[in-house]
Amino acid sequence: MPNIPVTTWSLEQTAPTDLLPAEPPEGEVRVHRAEVPSPEFSRFLYASVGGDIRWTDRLSWTYARWREHLERPGVETWVAYDRGTPAGYVELEPQDDGVVEIVYFGLVPAFRGRRIGGHLLSYGTARAWDLADRWPGLTDTKRVWLHTCSKDGEHAMANYQRRGFQLFDTKVEEEAEVPAPGPWPGAYPA
After folding, report:
1. Tens-place pLDDT, residues 20-72
2. At CB < 8 A and 24+ separation, what contacts does 174-179 make?
3. Cα separation, 107 vs 85, whole angstroms
4. pLDDT tens for residues 123-140?
5. What's the mean per-residue pLDDT of the chain?
6. Partner of 127 at 20 to 30 A CA spacing, among 47, 75, 118, 136?
7. What is each CA distance from 15 to 74, 98, 173, in whole angstroms?
């Protein structure tokens, strides 16, 4: 496979008041925390949301590696459900000195374009700001950050900026072009 240039943008909020919440979508969309660490469910979300946009770094994780990650204090998965069906998720991971990274965020392809993403990002960002309230021993959140890249959905950057995230770094690197794996092998045409 040839190499392609990939631009990665890093964005941040430095105060809870930076968050500009989206209006909730119409219908029965609910966001709930997946409180029981479940490697099966987390891998399902990861593969279903990222399969068409080339999320591949966790596909080789073992069950034990998933469990180890999910059981770390402060790692949280918040899932959006549309009428009971998982529509997307946001994964939070605390770092040092009150920093929380939104490690993964996105929607299953069938749920994109329905205003669920802005709502889920708003909800997930608010939960990043109050993460220490649920995890005694964690430092209060002082900064929430994330990154997106040119391989992500075409509306990702605009959604982050509409929610109040500010750009603080841009990098361009060559990466091997990989086919979209889909939620299972062969799910998307090459």
Report:
1. 999 999 899 999 999 999 999 999 999 999 988 888 889 999 999 999 999 99
2. 174/3, 174/4, 174/5, 174/6, 175/3, 175/4, 175/6, 176/1, 176/2, 176/3, 176/4, 177/1, 177/2, 177/3, 177/4, 178/1, 178/54, 178/56, 179/1, 179/54
3. 12
4. 999 999 999 999 999 999
5. 93
6. 47
7. 19, 11, 30
Contact 146, 165 (CB under 8 A): yes
d(CA 24, CA 92): 21
Among all chains, which residue has been given the structure tokens 């994330």?
146
Q: What is the DSSP string of 17-70?
A: GG--PPPPPSSSEEEEE--S--HHHHHHHHHHHHTTTT--TTTT--HHHHHHHH
Q: Are 87 and 75 in contact (CB under 8 A)?
A: no
DSSP 139: P
Q: How far apart are CA 57 and CA 98, in angstroms?
A: 26
Q: Read off φ and ψ for residue 146, nearest 5 degrees.
A: -160, 170
